[in-house]
Amino acid sequence: MKVAIVGASGAVGQEFLQVLQERNFPLDELVLFGSARSAGNEYEFKGKKLTVKELKHGDDFKDIDIALTSAGAGISKEFATTITKHGAIMIDNSSAFRYDDDVPLVVPEVNPEDAKVRPRNIIANPNCSTIQMVVALKPVEELSKIKRVRVATYQAASGAGAQGIAELEQQVQEVANGKDVTINKFPYQLAMNIIPHIDVFLENDYTKEEMKMNWETKKIMHTDAEVSATCVRIPVARAHSEAIWVETEKPLSVQEVKDAFRKFEGLTVIDNPAEKEYPMPLFVSGKDDVYVGRIRQDVTDPNSITFWCVGDQIKKGAALNAVQIAEWLIANGEVK
Ligand code: 2RA
């Protein structure tokens, strides 16, 4: 098994290295690719030094079985043929192919079988805010068809990559020292602030980040349920939080939803208001599971349940989900 990471120096690329190592992913060789700028960088993997090669058109992917790519949509589009032409399966973390009919969009706990039909040998990894939400929605959908979802997100700086985290850390220092704040990645100062704007605004006045949650949920869950999202950037390093309201066809009790959450692979319930126990980004950072809590009946509607959901954006929201897709492909004989 020969695996490639494309975009090895980025926040998600680095997390790929970490996750492959942590899970003892069954590989014989790992090859790292990156831009001309990051070519030559060295990273350690299982005690060995690996050097980043420059991503070029040619035959470098000839013997690669699985390519984990996270170098932005432009690079993914430009290099998809180079990566897949000799048979490598490209598991792509960018938004380049998510809405293409001939590219499956996969969260292994929700729709793993979709990964079998991949005419272009590309599988897309969904956006981070969608991944953690659909992991929590799936057990609810198994109890009753979901009619509608409303969600407000509280997204960490890591969603803007390693530079996003660095900018938040720098701003915190600048604010503490009474200096002018440096703003590059985010539209406004993030430290001591929140910004109700992620990605570009669309014609309907939702942002693209918000509509991704609508489009991607429909494709992954094979549902026509509409999702209305408000996506907000908050000054947290690396785990996204979401307040979710789910309207179901049948009324559901809080207890049956809690039981379904507890039984569902990939979810951890922390829900004990009496002891002030609920998931928070500070404690979920670095964890594999999606965490849910504050599970309660929506007081405005007997057919709605509302809850709080936290997931590590770089892990389950990106690198881990892609590696789990790769593991599923291997376990199901999909990699030759
Ligand atoms: C963000 N969802 O948080 C994006 C990253 N894919 O900015």
Give the integer mean of the pLDDT values.
98
So what's the CATH class of the largest domain?
Answer: Alpha Beta
The tally of structural domains comes to 2
Instruction: Give the biggest beta sheet.
Output: 6 strands, parallel
What structural class do the secondary elements suggest?
alpha/beta
Number of strands: 14
What ligands does this structure carry?
3-amino-D-alanine
Task: Please explain how this structure is put together.
The structure is a single chain. This protein is an alpha/beta fold. The protein folds into 2 domains: 139 residues, NAD(P)-binding Rossmann-like Domain (Rossmann fold); 185 residues, Dihydrodipicolinate Reductase, domain 2 (2-Layer Sandwich), CATH 3.30.360. The strands form 3 sheets. A 6-stranded parallel sheet has the order 5-2-1-6-7-8, sandwiched between helices. The model has no long low-confidence stretch (mean pLDDT 98).
Q: Notable features of this structure?
A:
Rossmann fold; 336 residues; globular; binds 3-amino-D-alanine; 8 helices; alpha/beta; 2 domains
Helices and strands in order, then pairings?
Elements: E1 2-6, H1 11-22, E2 29-34, E3 42-45, E4 48-51, E5 53-54, E6 66-69, H2 73-84, E7 89-92, E8 122-124, H3 128-143, E9 146-155, H4 162-176, H5 208-221, E10 226-233, E11 239-248, H6 254-263, E12 267-269, H7 281-284, E13 290-297, E14 304-312, H8 315-331
Parallel strand pairs: 1-2, 1-6, 2-5, 6-7, 7-8, 9-10, 12-13
Antiparallel strand pairs: 3-4, 9-11, 11-14, 13-14
The structure holds 3-amino-D-alanine.
3-amino-D-alanine binds next to helix 3.
